[in-house]
Amino acid sequence: MLIKTPPKSALKTSDITDESVYIQRRQLIKNMGFLGAGALLGSVISKTANAGFFDNKDADASSFKTTPLKFTADKDNVSLIKTPEQKVISHNNFYEFGAQKNQPTELSQNFKVNPWQLSISGECDNPITLDYDDLTTMFALEERIYRLRCVEAWSMVVPWIGFSLADLLKKVAPNSSAKYVLFETLHDPEQMPGQSDRRLGGGIAYPYVEGLRIDEAMNPLTLMSVGLYGKTLPPQNGAPIRLVVPWKYGFKSIKSIVSIKLVREKPQTTWNKLAASEYGFYANVNPAHDHPRWSQASERRITSGGLFARNRIETLPFNGYGEQVAHMYKNMDLTKYY
């Protein structure tokens, strides 16, 4: 099977994390064993999205899937700095487990993700409900390396594992009335202390909800993630399944999803309802449109250094994915529809 060679400008494994994570490719499947015995053995894992495809010499090449997507790279003057796995799993916004960056890790470790149900319903012909095992066996899994840009002006580079949201939506067959997609996080105050303690949970009205336009949801970049760094998602990163929309600010990438609904009208979303002037419905990364309280022209790339490490880089329109997504906003004023 022909494995495509990534362009020289694409993100490389060395740009993402320690190369030792990727040396033993067969270990990737073993590491994910706690999903359930053999849960991934029939799955397809490939590396796409600014990364190229990984080479597993121990695997049957016929089992690999390549995705014919074309990705843009960072500008020549923007250096990519490794995001160590430990930073990604310890520096989190997940207010259901606390509003401080360290609290989700500390307060989520007893979070139970099995059994789990994810329903896909609404304006579609074939609504379905997925259980825990379906999340990793129904679709071929891919590894995609994406930039993650937070509205708070920090960023990471993360190797996600998951499947295209478009594949899931095609399975339920949206009808002509489906204009938007509404996502909802699990509401379980007993397990998620931020949902029962207003101070701990940042004053948010739960459950957390987010939304995309149907064309955004069907874009090839939009990912349903079930893992990162060759392992299942930790609770603090949105286990067992989360959304990843790499050209939008991170709060759009809702975590621990239990419901996806295809709807006719633009839904109200959590942060947009709470502070519409600060958190727009579209939330496309836009260095030319500042947050009311800070500039969005640059970002702090989180690396192995501390909070005050000088790792500032230029923010790219659509987080660097404009070639793949800008056409969806061609006739929109992005300072008004932010």
List the total number of helices: 9
Beta strand count: 13
Helix content: 10-25%
Describe the biggest sheet? 8 strands, mixed
Structural class: alpha+beta
Q: Can you tell me the overall shape?
A: globular
User: Which radius of gyration do the C-alpha atoms yield?
Assistant: 19 Å
Mean pLDDT: 81
Care to describe what's here?
The protein has 9 helices and 13 strands. It has 338 residues and is of the alpha+beta class. Strands 1, 4, 5, 8, 9, 10, 12 and 13 form an 8-stranded mixed beta sheet that branches. It has a 5-stranded mixed beta sheet with strand order 3-2-11-6-7. It is globular, with a radius of gyration of 19 Å. The termini are far apart. The model is unreliable at 1-10 and 12-79 (pLDDT under 50).
Task: Briefly characterize the structure.
Helix content is 14%, strand content 20%. It has 338 residues and is of the alpha+beta class.
